Amino acid sequence: MISILIPVYNFDICTLVQELHRQSSQLAIPFEIICLDDGSTTAFKEKNRTIKEYTHLTYQELPQNLGRSKIRNRLGKLAKYDQLLFMDCDSKVVREDYMAHYANHLQSRSVLYGGRVYQPSPPADPALRFHWEYGRQREQQTADQRAKKPFHAFMTNNFIIPKAIFQQIGFDEQLTQYGHEDTLFGMELKRRNIHILHLDNPLEHLGLETQTIFLQKTQKGIENLYQLYTRQLDIETKLLSLFLRLKRNNLHTTTHFILRKLKPLIRSAVRYQPKQMRWFDLWKLAILLEYDAQNQDR
């Protein structure tokens, strides 16, 4: 028995829901689909209201935006079945047996993570190229690749979790803006010794954003990461690990100074060399060090 849970924000989910409903109806287990709209514009609400015609489906529009963590917790409370499939609304089902593949592994009692892929060819709009490059280089991994670092590779775009486990953990509602709620969730699974079974059962990420918006969201995510660090929570990311090494060796101040001087060069490289993700890594490190410097001055 499975509850498919989709938080919706400014995206047309009609095709996604149609395919999920078609595949789920072919399974020999009960299912439901719950979609909560988290303050989308009227145009998207009007499009998505057409999904109400499906059986085993609940669609609700919330009166105000709850944010990424709260709405997922709300979905978990509404679910009536014992297995919860969370996915992002800007997703596309790419396997004919997507639901069946998950259903075949439900008895494992593990958390199941299917992964994320991006379209094989670059987008026609150059403004979307950076996000696509990042996704292909950093987020698109096979199950074998992800299994080498099972908790670090976990994301919340496409996973199944037993409801009993989700009720114990939930998403941290102190994180009110974009970024790293999946990092914290993954580390909580690790702390509780909850196994993650990585599968090659991906959803394609459709919601490519312009480089400007993508960088703005990344900066908000780094702010969240620094908030988690100041709360002394046990989290692991490559960026934070590098930051902590610099702190331990008293190199953070010097590195911050150098990166501030190189800021125009780094900005230009990030903008005009989308394939070179090392420049993006430097940009993120510079932001994290800046947050730390500002915090120390208070």
Q: What fold name stands as the CATH topology of the largest domain? A: Spore Coat Polysaccharide Biosynthesis Protein SpsA, Chain A
Please report the first level of CATH classification, the CATH class of the largest domain: Alpha Beta
Overall pLDDT level: 92
Number of helices: 13
Structure classification:
alpha/beta
Please state roughly what percent of the residues sit in beta strands, choosing from under 5%, 5-15%, 15-25%, 25-35%, 35-45% or over 45%. Answer: 5-15%
Radius of gyration over all CA atoms, rounded = 20 Å
Can you tell me the number of structural domains? 2
Q: Which percent range fits the helix content?
A: 40-55%
With strands numbered from the N-terminus, the spatial order across the biggest sheet is 3-2-1-4-8-6-9
Q: What is the CA–CA distance across the termini?
A: 52 Å
Largest sheet: 7 strands, mixed
User: By CATH's scheme, which homologous superfamily of the largest domain applies?
Assistant: Spore Coat Polysaccharide Biosynthesis Protein SpsA, Chain A
- Describe the oligomeric state of these chains in a short phrase: single chain
Shape category = globular
Unreliable stretches, pLDDT < 50, 5 or more residues?
none
What is the count of β-strands? 10
Could you explain how this protein is built, in words?
The protein has 298 residues and is α/β, with parallel strands linked by helices. The chain has two domains: 204 residues, Spore Coat Polysaccharide Biosynthesis Protein SpsA, Chain A; 86 residues, no CATH class. It is 48% helix and 14% strand. The protein contains 13 helices and ten strands. Strands 3-2-1-4-8-6-9 form a seven-stranded mixed beta sheet, with helices on both faces. A three-stranded mixed beta sheet has the order 5-10-7. Helix 11 crosses helix 13. 34% of the residues are buried. The model has no long low-confidence stretch (mean pLDDT 92).
